[in-house]
């Protein structure tokens, strides 16, 4: 048991594909949870000026708008990064001394 964990740690190319897929899925879940936490914190700070037993219509509208803008902005950034990565040539030359 010890040798299999140390061998997979030493050679990442020999990781079990199912384990690698599981790790990728869990990493995506973690990123999504971080994004939701970030959005919740941002929108709470922006929209909750009065604490009470229920949301008034202004705060509710603010939350909806905030969440929509957060999602739009995140999607815009992801699309821009994808475009940037696709347009960059693969760097295969070595840097001059």
From TrEMBL:
It comes from the Eukaryota. It is found in: Mitochondrion inner membrane. Keywords: Chaperone, Disulfide bond, Membrane, Metal-binding, Mitochondrion, Mitochondrion inner membrane, Protein transport, Translocation, Transport, Zinc. Signal peptide: none annotated. GO terms for biological process: establishment of protein localization to mitochondrion; protein transport. Heterohexamer. Belongs to the small Tim family. This is Mitochondrial import inner membrane translocase subunit. It comes from Monodon monoceros (Narwhal).
């Amino acid at each position: 048991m010890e040798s299999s964990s140390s061998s997979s740690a030493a050679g990442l190319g020999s990781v079990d594909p199912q384990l690698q897929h599981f790790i990728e899925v869990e990493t995506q879940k973690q990123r999504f949870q971080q994004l939701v936490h970030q959005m919740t914190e941002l929108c709470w700070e922006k929209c909750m000026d009065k604490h009470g037993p229920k949301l008034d219509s202004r705060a509710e509208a603010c939350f909806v708008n905030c969440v929509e803008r957060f999602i739009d902005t995140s999607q815009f950034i992801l699309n821009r990064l994808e475009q940037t990565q696709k347009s960059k040539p693969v760097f295969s030359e070595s840097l001059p001394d």
